Amino acid sequence: MRQEAVTAILPSTSGEVLDLYYFDEEYVRKLREGDPSTEAHFVAYFTKLLQLKLRARFLAPEVVDDVSQETFVRFFKALRTDNGLRQPDRLGPFINTTCNYVLMEHYRSGSKNVALEPDHLEIPDKVLNLEDLAISNQTRAMVRDVLLQLPERDQSILRAIFLQEIAKEEVCQKFGVGRDYLRVLVHRAKEKFRSQMKN
Amino acid sequence: MNHDLAVKLEACEKYLLGELSAEMRDAFEDHFFSCADCAVQLRSAAEFIGASQQVLPYITPSAAREREKPEPNRWWRKLLPVIAVPAFAALLLFAGYQNLITIPQLKTKTVTAKQTSQVLQMFSLISGNTKGETVPTLTVAPDTTVGLYVEAPADPEYSTYLLRLQDPEGNIRTLRSLSYAAAQKTQVITVEPGTTAGNYALLISGKGHGDSSPAVELARIQFTIAFSSQVKQD
Fold first, then answer.
1. Which domain holds residue A39?
2. Does the beta-carbon distance from A123 to B185 stay under 8 Å?
3. For residues A64 and A54, is the Cβ–Cβ distance under 8 A?
4. Closest CB from A8, A23, A163 relative to B56
5. Do the domain assignments include residue A1?
6. pLDDT 10s digit of each residue in chain A, 199 long?
């Protein structure tokens, strides 16, 4: 079997400008009627958030996709029933709650090694693995610029927590910084990145 | 959780760094699903972290190191006349040796690292071939870095996993070790075959709980690297 290169590091889907719609009655009406642009915006907007939510639970990629899809299926089913969505301005939390129900069912249908009460699962104190997010070349280039502007020590700190998955306590001890320093470092780097995106 | 509290708590960064309790995580999620500002912040931060995880392996810190160098102490300037002349003579000799002998030798060696951003050729080995299916052939240009998507057969019975690469000559080198939690995620492995085409194998073994547990080979994912001079690089 001859396999050609599938792609570069994932095709560009990030960097697109998503208009900030108001989730009001008009929006919900269009969604219920199946307006294509509204549906497209809705799915694009909430897919990203659902994926981040599910990645925060360190689920396998296929589980992330399955739960996301099931969430949308149930949402649209509820949307098109009478009184399925009573408060248009609560559209986002409704999606979140629907996803929580799907997650609960996933956990309960899992193996005997999975706790039945997901809230009691110990949350790993580790950075989300977002390495396989769909990120454009342009975004990667901007992030590279931001990282190169950082002092070597900060680069090493980010490398340790983002790549090497070294425990944050160990990183703090090694570099002589506090946990707050890590958060501020990430925050400032993110703000520089956003500033470059706007420019 | 309202927006002001989310900002005050630095919830966005803490969420992505895995530093929120379950209760706070749920509260922040309920918030960012309804707050466009926090949703945008979160997405930007996630993109930044994701891109950093892709880019950091290829960044060398030389530029940053240069900027951090302290201002040199200039007391030695007084000794210049005594030191400079013989030093300059030695330098001339050294430069001559470099230009006539060393540099021409270096030019014939293959460049293995590039500083500019480079699109990585990615292949998926996720379907694997541990059960005797056809071995995939990956067609690449020589002296390029190849990226592979791989999934380890994660099993709660094993607490640590070892990923190793066997080249066509039978040499085995360790790529990385993973915890059970990490092994459940898709791995991105980079391979530099250089000019060695042929049959490679990714060996994945697992070790159970306890120091005395033996390592067990869980998967052997074979693939062939073939070179094509017609493969274009970006």
1. 25-120
2. no
3. yes
4. A163
5. no
6. 433 332 222 222 344 444 556 688 888 989 999 999 999 999 999 999 999 999 998 888 889 999 999 999 999 999 888 777 778 888 999 999 999 999 999 888 865 454 444 444 556 667 777 777 778 888 888 999 999 998 989 999 998 888 887 888 888 899 999 888 988 999 899 888 888 887 7
Provide the residue type at A26 as one letter: E
Nearest residue in A to B14, CA atom: A183
CA distance A158 to chain B (A): 8
Q: Which residue of A has its CA nearest to B226?
A: A2
CA distance B190 to chain A (A): 12
Q: Quick check: is A180 in a domain?
A: yes
- Which pTM was predicted? 0.55
Q: Does residue A101 form part of some domain?
A: yes
* Whole-number Cα distances in Å, B191 to B174, B197, B205: 12, 12, 19
How is chain B split into domains, by residue range? 3-57, 80-109, 121-227
Q: How many domains does chain A have?
A: 2
Residues of B within 8 A of A165 (CB-CB) are: 182
Q: Are strands A2-3 and B137-140 parallel, antiparallel or unpaired?
A: parallel
Cβ(A142)–Cβ(A184) under 8 Å?
A: no
The Cα A46–Cα A44 span in angstroms is 6
Residues of chain B contacting residue A46, judged by C-beta atoms under 8 Å apart: 33
Q: Which CATH architecture has domain B121-227?
A: Sandwich (2.60)
Contact A135 B32 (CB under 8 A): no
